[in-house]
Design goal:
Elements (H helix, E strand, L loop, with lengths): L1 E3 L2 E3 L3 E5 L6 E2 L9 E2 L3 E5 L5 E3 L4 H14 L6 H10 L4 H8 L3 H8 L7 H14 L3 H16 L9 E7 L2 E7 L2
Antiparallel strand pairs: 1-2, 3-6, 4-5, 6-7, 8-9
Helix pairs in contact: 1-2, 3-4
Length: 176
């Protein structure tokens, strides 16, 4: 029973198939922009309530997370919350691991203060390494290796020269 505009009715559902032209809006993902195709769903002709039978939900959520992590756009608040929840982390634990305050995570997730680019990358790397998705972890490892190879000095560490004078150490970088 659904109460719509003070009128009670028994829902009468019409079955539909989600297609490219008419996808199913998967709001239960926690993200506002996820649409499914290839599934069957039902819509009440009176109140427009929808329901769907979604197979392999765990796998679906995993591929959605992979799409979020691989998207080059900055992470949105709902995406950060989605990734954190997929890892099964409380906000406080997530904040501690990322190295920010609980309040900062709340601001990110509520869209009041997007993360800096460095925090965005750290969240993605953290998700990739802890998600259990081997393919995603291998991709991010290659991405990190590529980034390290692009650093100056053809992937060689700069020389550090340390010296002691009157029992006091000093150190400075030097040419390799």
């Amino acid at each position: 029973m659904v109460n719509t505009a003070m009128t009670t009715h028994d829902c009468i559902f019409q079955e539909r198939k989600a297609t490219i032209d008419s996808p199913y809006h998967f709001v239960d993902s926690g993200l506002p922009n996820v649409y499914l195709t290839g599934i069957r769903y039902r819509v009440c002709s009176t109140c427009r309530e929808q329901s769907a039978d979604i197979p392999e939900v765990k796998q679906l959520m995993s591929v959605i997370a992979q799409a979020v992590v691989e998207n080059e756009s900055p992470l949105t608040g709902p995406e950060i919350r989605f990734l954190r929840k997929r890892l099964g982390k409380k906000s406080s634990e997530f904040a501690r691991i990322i190295g920010v305050s609980l309040e900062q995570v709340s601001r990110w997730e509520n869209g009041r203060n997007p993360p800096e680019a460095s925090a965005d990358k750290l969240i993605r790397i953290y998700y990739c390494h802890l998600s259990g998705n081997r393919e995603l972890r291998e991709r991010i490892d290659k991405h990190i290796e590529s980034w390290l190879a692009s650093l100056p000095g053809e992937n060689q560490l700069p020389c550090i020269r340390a010296k002691i004078k009157r029992d006091v150490w000093t150190a400075s970088p030097c040419a390799a």
